[in-house]
Amino acid sequence: MSNAIIKIENLKKQYENEEVVTPVLFGLDFVIKKGEFVAIMGPSGSGKSTLMHILGFLDKLSTGKYLFEDVDVSGLDDEQLAEMRGHKIGFVFQSFNLLPRTSVLENVMLPLVYTKLSQAERVEKAKKAIEAVGLTHRINNLSNQLSGGEKQRVAIARALVNDPSVIFADEPTGNLDSKSGLQIMKILQELNLKQGHTIILVTHEKYTAEHAERIIKMRDGLIESDEAVKNRLIAERVGELK
Amino acid sequence: MNFIENVNNSFHLIKQNKIRSFLTMLGIIIGIASVIMIISVGNGAQSLIFNQIKSQGSNLMAIFPGSTDKEGPPASVMGIVITTLKYDDVKALYDQSRIPEITAYTGYVRGSETAVWQGNKTDTTFIGVSSYLPTVEDTDTQIGNFFTEEEEKSMQKVAVLGSDTWKNLFGDQNPVGELVKIGKQSFRVIGVMRERGTSGFSNQDNQIYIPITVGQKLMLGINHLSYARLKVSDENKLDLVREEVKQILRDRHDILPGQPDDFDVRTQKESLDVLLQITNALKFFLAAIAGLALVVGGIGIMNIMLVSVQERIREIGLRKAVGAKNRQIMIQFLIETIVLTSIAGIVGILFGVLVSFLVAVVANALGYKWEFSISFFSIFLGVFVSSVIGLIFGLIPARRASKLDPIDALRYE
Ligand SMILES: Nc1ncnc2c1ncn2[C@@H]1O[C@H](COP(=O)(O)OP(=O)(O)OP(=O)(O)O)[C@@H](O)[C@H]1O
Ligand SMILES: [Mg+2]
């Protein structure tokens, strides 16, 4: 097994609805190695989210090749894809996507509900993930009683809880103020540096992107550049992160 | 998720979405409860009518004015006034002694009036009948006497009170010899009937019997009868007697051969058959209403299910995004729907039975002999239809949503 976790070759995507064909990705190639922290940047509409959804098994590619941990994804059926989503990846959305009127603990436990773990194991794992994002004091709050930053931290805990191989974060700081945004970056960076999680992050902000070790820039469905970050920023603890 | 977790989770989700759950359940509750109620009330009403008619004996024959076809009820019962049947016709049947089997007869006329005694008032029905009424209807007085043929012929203003009318006017006091005003006329009370209960939908105890002659001339100013009844000594000769009665009446009414009767003679059994038809039609009508209630309830369930699934497509997307398989989502929805329909079903059954029971209690309190019965068929029908609708409209959209790519479901607006 190579240390490449994600490998795409000439990946293309076009949306086809009601006879309108919208090509979005025009042939992308890259490799992401285990333990890497990659930021994807690019103007709005350049196809960043589309790419993330395909890599995160939420959407299907049109043509090209996608190898995840050396397995060709195109050969997987619905059930196996669900399996991959449940065990291999964690996804953090810009718009949080928490279950409404549901406690922090239950939200974080959601991915484990579909595993064979016992209830006690689920609670234990969820508590650990909640601790990692510093929300232990909010564990029984309902999702609608949280601030935006707290919601996103719950979403990160949820993405973490099944020990995924890759964490995808699509503009996780996009809806947050700079202070909450920094907290999120601090958490993601710690996950990467201290626990060795592979992280792929989409962002508009150069400043945020420079917390990663590598930046892939996209434009109009193509890769414009793919470079290492020269002076990587390290997020400091901002405010109270209990 | 195993089964128990799924059930727990369902309760949890139902609680979390109180309004949505409540609306869904409301549709099911209304559907089931109304089916149970309507069918129970229909059966109760039918039993009520039948028990009363049967209790009056099977050797009675009724004569209604106007001709009607055998299958339907007499025209006069439907509220049409026909004046061709006279008291002399009925007396003639008896007097001619051509038909020895007729042992008693009475005509009927009736009206509503207020009865007053020393300032006590009660709204009541006065009924002009023959002196033979106690024999015909198989009843008697508890105080005093019924009026005699002489009193009837000489148009005495005498009255026999029903037991409720007596209590309303006099309390426990003996009314015999007192003067009671019925409308504008004063009547001397000569007796009180024993308690008789209800017949059809009228309370036989809140009535005043007066001589038919007085009823026709003084009270109503008419000379026809609403209907008449004959008592026949031998039940087996009813058909024979009917033919003779018909012949005599045709002669008296100068009806030429080939012309139809202008009256209708029915035995008690025939009346029962006709009533059976009427009440069956009523039951059919009620069943149609029950069906309508089910459809309305069903549409309610369907709408709420559709709306809630729209709401939940995003949730389905999220669950799929974190690893739920289609099958797991379907099981979750299935169990949730079953839990919801079961709770609603139980509430609906309890509610329907309770209301049916209350109707029976109230009807009995009002003096009707109302049998409280719940048909298992109605419970089955209500529960079956509601749950099938719940399942279909809960699961089909969920199934569609579970087939979407997670991102399409998540993006759903
Ligand atoms: N379901 C769809 N059907 C058709 N076109 C789509 C669909 N989803 C996205 N697109 C198109 O694909 C292109 C890329 O969209 P995408 O969301 O990947 O952009 P993005 O780089 O994430 O932009 P942003 O920075 O604004 O989030 C857009 O032009 C968009 O209109
Ligand atoms: Mg995007």
From TrEMBL, chain A:
<keyword id="KW-0813">Transport</keyword>
<dbReference type="GO" id="GO:0098796">
    <property type="term" value="C:membrane protein complex"/>
</dbReference>
<dbReference type="InterPro" id="IPR027417">
    <property type="entry name" value="P-loop_NTPase"/>
</dbReference>
<keyword id="KW-0067">ATP-binding</keyword>
<dbReference type="GO" id="GO:0022857">
    <property type="term" value="F:transmembrane transporter activity"/>
</dbReference>
<keyword id="KW-0547">Nucleotide-binding</keyword>
<dbReference type="GO" id="GO:0005524">
    <property type="term" value="F:ATP binding"/>
</dbReference>
<dbReference type="GO" id="GO:0016887">
    <property type="term" value="F:ATP hydrolysis activity"/>
</dbReference>
<dbReference type="Pfam" id="PF00005">
    <property type="entry name" value="ABC_tran"/>
</dbReference>
<dbReference type="InterPro" id="IPR017911">
    <property type="entry name" value="MacB-like_ATP-bd"/>
</dbReference>
<dbReference type="InterPro" id="IPR003439">
    <property type="entry name" value="ABC_transporter-like_ATP-bd"/>
</dbReference>
<dbReference type="InterPro" id="IPR017871">
    <property type="entry name" value="ABC_transporter-like_CS"/>
</dbReference>
<feature type="domain" description="ABC transporter">
    <location>
        <begin position="6"/>
        <end position="241"/>
    </location>
</feature>
<protein>
    <submittedName>
        <fullName>Antimicrobial peptide ABC transporter ATPase</fullName>
    </submittedName>
</protein>
<dbReference type="InterPro" id="IPR003593">
    <property type="entry name" value="AAA+_ATPase"/>
</dbReference>
<comment type="similarity">
    <text>Belongs to the ABC transporter superfamily.</text>
</comment>
